[in-house]
Amino acid sequence: MKKLILNKWLVVLVLLIVVVASAQQNANIASQRKVLEQQRKELLKKIQDTKKVLQETKNKQEKTLSDLKVISKQIENREKVINTVGDEIAILEKQITDQQQVITTLRDDMTRLKLDYGKSILGAYKQRNVYDKVLFIFSASSFNQAIKRIQYLNQLGDYRKHQADLILHTQKQITGILNELIAHKQEKQGLIVLKEAEKVELEEDKKEESAVLIKLQDKEKELKRALAENERAARKLNDAIADLIRKEIAEARRKEDERRKSKSNNNPAAPRATPTDKKTTPGELYLTPEAQKLSDDFENNIGKLPWPVERGVIAQKFGMQSHPTLKGVVVNNNGIDIQAQPGAPVRTVFKGVVRSIFSIPGMGKIVLINHGKYYTAYAKLASVNVKEGQEVSTREQIGTVMTSDENETEVHFEIWKVQTKQNPEVWLKQ
Q1: Which segment of 35-39, 114-118, 180-184, 303-307 scores lowest on mean pLDDT?
Q2: Are 55 and 106 in contact (CB under 8 A)?
Q3: Are residues 105 and 53 in the same domain?
Q4: Domain that holds residue 200
Q5: Average of pLDDT values for 116-124?
Q6: Interstrand relation of 336-340 and 312-316 (parallel, antiparallel or unpaired)
Q7: According to the model, what pLDDT value does residue 277 have?
Q8: 54 lies in a domain?
Q9: How confident is the model at residue 131 (pLDDT cuts 50, 70, 90)?
Q10: What residues are paired with 391 via a beta bridge?
Q11: N or C, which terminus of the chain has less Cβ within 10 Å?
Q12: Claim to verify: residue 154 and residue 244 sit in the same structural domain
């Protein structure tokens, strides 16, 4: 009897280990898959946004450099989707293999349980006469032995009941895992179909990219001229923003000096400024408590800011990059260029105050907004519907995107921290 009970608990322990290990592994795999699934959904959304932007230019006879950049971005996103789906399939395959192993283990345990249960039932059948049990108890040589025989019979009954419960529980475990296994196999098949569809789309995108690239390479002189014009416009924009910020720093310092001087004149006995007083260096912007809070709020939203257009694709990234068609040519971008649909509204990425509105040939209309020690610049606008000094809220429309003579519809967006240019992609919500 002790051996039977020991075997029962060994089976229970094995089942418990198998179920707990399987649950823990499934939880880890589910967490990994959730991350991959979210990445896939975000990439597919970007692809849909890119499609809508490209649809606007599909009927154009002449493809532009901006179109080439968007197509290249589309290819990049498709390759990421294919890789992500591949990772999801690999995780599902591992999950399916693990579940098959768990089912095999549970079925083996089920066989042992049924065998033990059969032996137990057979023994109970042989001892089915109640008088045999009574005789078994009363034939004990002592009272203590009789008590032990009663306990033995009770344990035997409990053992049979536990065996039956354990068999039912194991059957439920096997049924549940089998259902999960079927669902995972179906999901895997769906991902395989998606991956193959994306591969077909990828090949089409590459063909289009190659065709546009060949056409643009035939226009090398025009591209070089356009590049020179863009660089001149970018330098003018950079100088204009830097000059405006310098003036703002100087004005803020002047007001702070006046405040300190007035405070000192009103209270001659007050001590002069001490090292603990708030001071600013020549390149630092003095902030009022309200402006400091605005600045802190902006800073706390890194990676969370909305895009300056509701739907668009980054055609040119921040910093130094190789020109997509001109060999050996490197271009520098102080912000990012986002290709959008013609006439698309341009909106603020955070609350602030409009500091300046001006125009530069090649850059269209520009709006500079202050957010404490941070500034956001919105260039290549066709129209502006805000005024200097106006307070604006997050996602408030400030104008519309411009379409150039070359049929490029994009907004140029920059972020400055006082006089230091930031990478806008790091700040925008992806």
Answers
A1: 114-118
A2: no
A3: yes
A4: 2-217
A5: 56
A6: antiparallel
A7: 44
A8: yes
A9: very low
A10: 353
A11: C
A12: no
In one-letter notation, the amino acid at residue 424 is: P
pLDDT band per the 50, 70, 90 thresholds, residue 255: confident
Chain position carrying tokens 């260029």: 337
Q: Please indicate, yes or no, if residue 60 is contained in any of the structural domains.
A: yes
Tell me phi and psi for residue 374, to 5 degrees: -105, 150
Tokens of 194: 């998606």
The answer to whether 311 and 344 are in contact (CB under 8 A) is yes
- The Cα–Cα gap between 401 and 92 comes to 44
Phi, psi dihedral angles at 372 (to 5 degrees):
80, -120
- 118, two tokens: 């059969």
147 belongs to a structural domain: yes
In our burial notation (b when 16+ CB lie closer than 10 A, e otherwise), range 115-146 reads: ebbeebeeeeeeeeeeeeeeeebeeeeeeeee
Give me the residue label for tokens 């354990």.
166
Residues 193 and 228 in one domain: no
Q: Which residues pair with 410 in a beta bridge?
A: 339
pLDDT value, residue 127: 52
Which amino acid, one-letter code, is at 1? M
pLDDT value of position 130: 46
Do 290 and 313 fall into the same domain? yes
- Domain of residue 58, CATH code: 1.20.1050
Q: How far is CA 177 from CA 21, 103, 105, 107, 415, in A?
A: 13, 7, 12, 12, 52
Top pLDDT among 26 and 302 is at 302
Q: Looking at the domain assignment, is residue 271 inside a domain?
A: no
Q: First and final CA of the chain: distance in angstroms?
A: 65
